[in-house]
Amino acid sequence: MAGMDATEPGAAPPALQRIVDLFAGAPKDLRLQALLEYSRKVPPLPEELAGHRELMEQVPECMTPFFLATEVDADDRVHLHFDVPDQAPTTRGFAGILHAGLDGATPAAVLATPNDFYLKMGLAEAISGQRLRGMGAILARLKRQVAAHIAAS
Predict the structure, then answer these.
(1) Which residues are 70's β-sheet partners?
(2) Could you give the CA distance from residue 105 to residue 72 in angstroms, rounded to a whole number?
(3) What is the pLDDT of residue 53?
(4) How far apart are CA 109 and CA 59, in angstroms?
(5) What is the predicted pLDDT for the residue at 8?
(6) Cβ atoms of residues 64 and 77 within 8 Å
(7) Is the dihedral of CA 47, 51, 56, 57 positive or negative?
(8) What local confidence, expressed as pLDDT, does residue 131 receive?
(9) Is 145 in contact with 79 (CB distance < 8 Å)?
(10) Residue 67 neighbours by CB distance under 10 Å
(11) What confidence score (pLDDT) does residue 11 get?
């Protein structure tokens, strides 16, 4: 039986794919509402990162101040940390989706996530292209950090 990361090359990890499918299958008017729900699911930063944006990487492509940090634990699982203002629910929703879909995945599964997975969610009808590109930038930086963790181990 395959584990939680049984992903094909170029496929999103199962948890993220479930979110993509949920959005894609939802009526257009519910997609933005679902995105806002994910904005409430971003966990608080761990104590060592709270108030320490200098320890995180900024994603300047986002219109909102967005900072992220990744770590890979001893069990070879990726953990994601995001600092994004509550006043930016769309961007915070992206962080919630990425956290729900990728936190706890293996580095290989994170790196195999298609760079444009979010395009299949049907969000282009609900939010601007610039905001969607921000999600791509967040994923790109997150993947670069994970790749750096792998290279350093």
Answers:
(1) 80
(2) 10
(3) 95
(4) 22
(5) 53
(6) no
(7) positive
(8) 82
(9) no
(10) 20
(11) 82
Given this model, what pLDDT does residue 9 score?
55
All residue ranges of the chain with pLDDT < 70 are 1-10
Virtual torsion, Cα 52, 101, 136, 112, nearest 10 deg: 110
Name the DSSP letter for residue 44.
Answer: P
Lookup: tokens for 138: 């967040």
Largest CA distance in the chain: 45
For 90, the token pair is: 């769309």
For residue 2, the model assigns a pLDDT of 37
Residue type, 146: V
Report the distance separating Cα 61 and Cα 128, nearest Å: 14
Phi–psi pair at 7, nearest 5 degrees: -115, 145
Instruction: Give the chain's radius of gyration (CA, Å).
Output: 15
Query: What number of other Cβ atoms are within 10 A of residue 88's Cβ?
Result: 18
Whole-angstrom Cα distance, residue 9 to residue 112?
Answer: 6
Q: 110 by DSSP, 3-state: which? A: helix
Instruction: Give the chain's domains with CATH numbers.
Output: 20-41+56-152 (3.90.1010.10)
